[in-house]
Amino acid sequence: MSASSSMQGHSVPASGMDNTVESPGQRAPLVLGTGDFHTVTNQVCRVTEHPNVPMAWYIAFGVSLALLGGLGVAVTYLIFTGVGVWGLNNPVMWAFDITNFVFWVGIGHAGTLISAILFLFRQKWRTGINRFAEAMTIFAVICAGLFPGIHVGRVWFAYWLFPIPNQMEMWPQFRSPLLWDVFAVGTYFTVSLVFWYIGLIPDLATLRDRAKGTIQQFAYGLFALGWRGSARHWHRYEVAYLLLAALATPLVLSVHSVVSFDFAVSQLPGWHTTIFPPYFVAGAIFSGFAMVASLAVPARELFGLKDIITMRHLDNMNKVILVTGCMVGYAYSMEFFIAWYSGAPYEQFAFINRAFGQYWWAYWIMVSCNVITPQLFWFKKVRTSIPAMFILSLFVNVGMWFERFVIIVSSLANDFLPSSWDQFIPTWVDIATMLGAFGLFGVLFLLFCRYLPMIAIAEVKGVMPEASPHWEGYAKGHGSHGHGSHGHHGGAPAGSQPALQDPRTGQP
Amino acid sequence: MSRFLFPRWSNAVLPLVAVGGAIAPLYIVFLIAYAWSPKTIEVGYKPAQPVPYSHALHVGQLGLDCRYCHTTVDRAAHASVPATQTCMNCHTQVQKDSPRLKPVRESYESGRSVLWTRVHDLPDYSYFDHSAHVNRGVSCVECHGRIDQMEVVQKAAPMSMGWCLECHRNPTDNLRPLDRITQLSWDQRTEMTAEEREALKKLYHINPSENCSTCHR
């Protein structure tokens, strides 16, 4: 991380304070360092303003761009040739395509959980990670949306997914979960995008006001929509944010439930399972939090954000990973129990085949990464160890990808009729498309890190002690001068809004 | 502190942007539903032909039967375009020196076909059988319009999937007795009662399928 030292510049190094300790009667600080409001603004804005980008960013961007190029080649080849370039066959007519779709849709769910559900439950630690978790959601849904679009084969007819009156007088099958999927994912993307953007507006205004270049001033100014940080602006912002949080909350549960219906509503043993909706939702949050951890750990190192994304945040995320990992493990075992309890021979075969059949290795990768290794998070030493949590979160990402692969491919490959059994072997196009989706995600995410505020500046300020009217600093007169007390909402002209009225400080 | 401020006129633009944003999805739906439809872009297609053959003259005035030229229409899926020989049956005697018939005479001498421009071209993935329709009471006019009045043949119906389905769902009004099949000026909607058409449907065992594989085989 030597390259990042240039970025960190004059930043306050992460203090030695351990804010993962719970001490009764006292809330652990969520922002470390000696930072006041202005320091937080500086720390976050510096990432987008600093002319020197860490070398690691360039390397990651180059790799992502190369993978994205591979995606372009693979998808172009697919479109011009047909889905036969994938390793699909009969009976395995869904494989990497839908595996990737479900994987990416699932990833997104952590962002919505953090931004909406944790907001409604007043989990203040969400403020440190919600912005880039939401960005992750949006980019993940973009990656997910790619796959249904291209797996239909004739992409120029992808608009058939939508119920639009047409010359054929044909409509999508309204009784099919595949159509519900279109609505679920479409709604999810729209609401997530609007929610993310509304949250960005005050911070975009901050960047606008700090920008030196005319282009930056115009670009940030355009998207800040004329935000000036007046009390009326904040009032409306808060109402809109709360409403959108309420709107996004059911989506955390509904979207992946509907995705699970793609399988559960069918008759195939291994898919036709009532446990799927809650099991998929738990898995989605599990994989999403793992992805947030995989992104947050390098990001806070690289861009000097350790005071804002503190060890407590990471500890909390690891606890969520542990809990949801256990839920997923419960679902795995319950599937086997029900297969035995049902007395249905096909159901029993599907699960024995899953664990010991031709895809046994995929099954056991899934179990190892999703159920066994996350158990290490019971130990606080592991939960607060950067290398350990990074590696474990990558394991979860791998495991959750394999979970979808196992569900889809092993169930299809050995269906009711042994004469039609087959094996799926991915082609180079399959692999280039899978890796390319990671490239697309990486490019979008790295551009986001570079040009937009990675941390919700205004929201983080709301959970700092300085935001409390009873903050002792005011009595000592610390807040009465300098940059600490006013203009902390970025766009607010100096003195237009007293710090005491920060709308995030609903409670002490 | 310099900052970007929206100019005052942008306040006036805001409602336009909002209205535009609200209308845009409807506009896309309208484009797909109407502007892309063959009803809009294909009906009235009227290409110039190498020979200015007039159906209005040959069919409307002289009274040639459709089947005199399109010989396979009641026996095969495809309604054949006549060979040059068919033209020359008469034109060795009639108008044999007309300059407008030059391509026909050239074709007759060289043995190479006249390169007619196709007017009705169904996609390769849709199966259509002329004989199945004209032998069961569906007249030429139902799909091709009043060919007997056309100087230059043009596409009279959209021939879209929805248009096919309209008749397959409710065929009764388009049925007529078999001896009137090629009589384009005759209209069963005025000449027959609904009960009579309904009786024809029973008589001919008309039970049109809406199954995908009926047309997409």
Describe the protein's architecture and organization:
The complex is a heterodimer of chains A (508) and B (217). Chain A is an all-alpha fold and 508 residues long. Chain A has one domain. Chain A contains 17 helices and no strands. In chain A, α8 (231-264) packs across α9. Residues 1-14 and 479-508 of chain A have low confidence and may be disordered. Chain B contains 12 helices and no strands. The relative contact order of chain B is 0.13. The mean pLDDT of chain B is 92. Helices cover 44% and strands 0% of the residues of chain B. Chain B has 2 domains: 13-40, no CATH class; 46-81 and 116-215, no CATH class. The longest helix of chain B is centred in the N-terminal third of the chain and has 26 residues, at 10-35.
Entry keywords:
heterodimer, A: mainly alpha, globular, disordered C terminus, B: 217 residues, mainly alpha, 2 domains, 12 helices, 0% strand
In the residues of chain B, how many domains can be counted? 2
Q: What percent of the residues of chain B sit in helical stretches (DSSP H or I)?
A: 40-55%
Task: Tell me the total number of β-strands of chain B.
Answer: 0
**For the residues shown, what is the average pLDDT of chain A?**
86
Structural class of chain A: mainly alpha
Computed over alpha carbons, the radius of gyration of chain A is 24 Å
Please, how many helices of chain A? 17
